[in-house]
Amino acid sequence: MDFSSFLNNLTPATGFFYFLSFLTILTGLMVVLSKNPIHSVLYLIATFFCLSGHYVLLNAQFLAAVNIIVYAGAIMVLFLFVIMFLNLKQEDEESKTNLTKIAAMVTGGTLFLIFVAVFRKTQFGAFNAYSFDSQVGMVESLGEVLYKDYLLPFELASILFLVAMIGAVMLGRREAGDRHF
Amino acid sequence: MTIDVALIIKAIIILLIFGITLLIAMYSTYGERKVAAFMQDRIGPNRAGPFGLLQPLADAVKMFFKEDFIPSQASKWLFILGPCLSMLTALMTSAVIPFGDSVKYESAPGKVWDIPVQAIDVNIGILYVFGVVSLGVYGIMVGGWASNNKFSLLGAIRAASQNISYEISMGLAIIAILMMTGSLSIRHIVEQQHGGNWNIFYQPLGFIIFITCAFAECNRTPFDLPECETELIGGYHTEYSSMKLGFYLFAEYINMFVSSAMISSLYFGGYNYPGMDWVQAQLTSSLGEIAGHNVGTLIGTLVFFAKSLFFVFFYMWVRWTLPRFRYDQLMNLGWKALIPLAMINIILTGGAILFLKPLIVSFLK
C-alpha cells in the first residue's frame, strides 16, 4: 500500500490518532531537547494533554480527565514551582560530566532495546465489533471493576499513598528549635 | 436537512453562551466600579454614555492604544503565552454549565428535537471543570516567570501555592455533592434539585467551603495575594501592559462569572425556581406544547442568570468589605481549617445517606 492510498483510506479517528501520536512524540522529544528546564516542563504538560487525547480516543473519558487533573494540573505545577526557584543563570556543570552522559545513554538504550524486543513479537488483540462495549471507560463501569474485582489492590495502593504522605510530612516537619524562615 | 436545523440551533446556543459570558464579564468591570462607588459613597463612572454605560468600551479602546511593551530580558514567547493561557482556561469552563432546560423544535409533524441549552453535556462535567480550573494557574505562573522580574515571580508563586491549596478543599466539597447525586454530569445535579430540593439546604457547610475556595481560586479579595499592589506592585502582571494586561484582568472577571454560575448550579438549583411546574403548566396550556416549553426554558435561563449575577455582586460586595489576609493566615485557613472541615462534611454526608435517610423514610411511612 503506497502513501496516497493510505491517506485516502484514513478515517477521521485514525487520522486524529496519527496526528496526536506525532504531536506526542514531538513534544516528548522537545522535553529532552530543550535547553531551558521551564520549557521542558511546559512541553511535558503538552505531552500529558496529548496522552489525554489518546485516552479519549480509547473511550476512557474518566482516565483522560484524571490524567489532566492529577498530572498536568497538580504534579506539573509543583515541578514548575520548584524549577522557578532554581537559579537558571548558573550553568549546572555537576550533571553534565561525560560519565553521567554515558550512563544515561546506556540505560536509555537498554530500555529502548527491551521495548523493541517486546513489541516486535507481541500479538495484539484484534478489534472485535461484537464484544466491544462503548461504555467500558465510563466512570460507572470503572468504579464497579475497581470496587468489586480489584478492591484489595485498590485499598493497598491507598494505604501506600497514606504512608508516603505521612512520610513527606514527617520529613518536612519543623523540629523544635528550627528557625522559622 | 432536519439535522442541519438542529445543528444550527445548537451552534446559535453555543455562540450565545460564549457571547453572553464575554458581555457579562465586560459589564462586571463596570459593575465593580459602580458597586465600589456606591459602597464608598461616590458616584463612579458616569462620563462615557448614559450612566457611564460605555465605560467598558472606553477602557478596552484605551487598553488597545497603549504601548505593547515586552521587557528586553523577558522570555518573549512565554510572555505572550501567559495571558493567552489565562483567557483560554477562563473561557473553557462555561462549556459544560447548563444555562437552561432545553429548546424544543419541531422539524416535521410529530418529530421534535430536544436541544439542551448547554454547549456540551459530557458525563464527566464536574471533572472537566475541575481539570480546567487546575490548569488556570499556568497562565499566571508562565506570565510571572517570563517577565523576569522578582515581584512578578513572587506573585506567580503565591498564586500557584494558593490555587493548589484551595483546589483540594474545593474538590472535597464537591465530592459531598457527588455522593448525594451519584452523577458527575452538572445537568443531572441541576435536575435533581428540581422542586426546591436545592443542595444549599443539605450542604450548608459544603457551600461555605466551596465559596471560600472559589474566592481563592479567582484571586479575589480577601485572597488577592498574588497581585496585592501594596506588597508586590502588581504581582504577576507587573511587567504587562496594553491588551496583554487587559486579558489578565478580563480573565479574572470571566472566572468570577463562571464560578458564580457554578455556585448557582451546584448549590442553588441552577435554572430551577420555586413554582416552576405551575408556571410550566400555565405556559403549555396557553401557548401550546412546544412554544410553552421554550418560553419556560427562557424564564429558567433568566432565573439562572439572576442567581449568577447575584453571586457576581456578592464577590464585589466582599471585595469592598473585607481586608486582605496575611499569607500565613491564608495557608493556615486552607490546610488546617478548610480541608479538615471538608472531610468532616464528607463523613457527615455519608453517614446521613447511610443511616439518617432510611430512618426518615421509614418514619414518613
Automatic annotation (TrEMBL), chain A:
The cross-references to Pfam families, in alphabetical order and at most eight, read: Oxidored_q3 (PF00499)
Q: What is its EC number?
A: 7.1.1.-
Q: How does it sit in the membrane?
A: Multi-pass membrane protein
- Looking at its record, which EC class is this enzyme? translocase
Q: Which UniProt keywords apply?
A: Cell membrane, Membrane, NAD, Quinone, Transmembrane, Transmembrane helix
Q: Which residues cross the membrane?
A: 15-33, 40-58, 64-86, 98-119, 150-171
Q: Which reaction(s) are listed as its catalytic activity?
A: a quinone + NADH + 5 H(+)(in) = a quinol + NAD(+) + 4 H(+)(out)
Q: Where in the cell is it found?
A: Cell membrane
Main role?
NDH-1 shuttles electrons from NADH, via FMN and iron-sulfur (Fe-S) centers, to quinones in the respiratory chain. Couples the redox reaction to proton translocation (for every two electrons transferred, four hydrogen ions are translocated across the cytoplasmic membrane), and thus conserves the redox energy in a proton gradient.
Q: Which family does it belong to?
A: Belongs to the complex I subunit 6 family.
In its UniProt entry, what is this protein called?
NADH-quinone oxidoreductase subunit J
State the species of origin.
Runella salmonicolor
Q: What is the lineage of its organism?
A: Bacteria, Pseudomonadati, Bacteroidota, Cytophagia, Cytophagales
Automatic annotation (TrEMBL), chain B:
Main localization of the protein?
membrane
Annotated membrane topology is: Multi-pass membrane protein
Free-text function comment from the UniProt entry:
NDH-1 shuttles electrons from NADH, via FMN and iron-sulfur (Fe-S) centers, to quinones in the respiratory chain. The immediate electron acceptor for the enzyme in this species is believed to be ubiquinone. Couples the redox reaction to proton translocation (for every two electrons transferred, four hydrogen ions are translocated across the cytoplasmic membrane), and thus conserves the redox energy in a proton gradient. This subunit may bind ubiquinone.
Task: Tell me what this protein is called.
Answer: NADH-quinone oxidoreductase subunit H
Family from the record: Belongs to the complex I subunit 1 family.
Key words, A-Z: Cell membrane, Membrane, NAD, Oxidoreductase, Quinone, Translocase, Transmembrane, Transmembrane helix, Ubiquinone
NAD recorded as keyword: yes
Instruction: Report the transmembrane regions from the record.
Output: 7-28, 77-100, 120-143, 164-186, 198-216, 245-268, 295-318, 338-360
- What's the EC number here? 7.1.1.-
- PANTHER family in alphabetical order: NADH DEHYDROGENASE SUBUNIT 1, NADH-UBIQUINONE OXIDOREDUCTASE CHAIN 1
Output the InterPro entries linked to this UniProt entry. Answer: NADH_UbQ_OxRdtase_su1/FPO, NADH_UbQ_OxRdtase_su1_CS
Subcellular localization:
Cell membrane; Membrane
The subunit structure is: NDH-1 is composed of 14 different subunits. Subunits NuoA, H, J, K, L, M, N constitute the membrane sector of the complex.
Catalytic activities: a quinone + NADH + 5 H(+)(in) = a quinol + NAD(+) + 4 H(+)(out)
Q: What class of enzyme is it?
A: translocase
Q: Which Pfam families match?
A: NADHdh
Please indicate if the UniProt record lists Cell membrane as a keyword: yes
What are this entry's molecular-function GO terms?
oxidoreductase activity
Please tell me the species this chain comes from: Runella salmonicolor
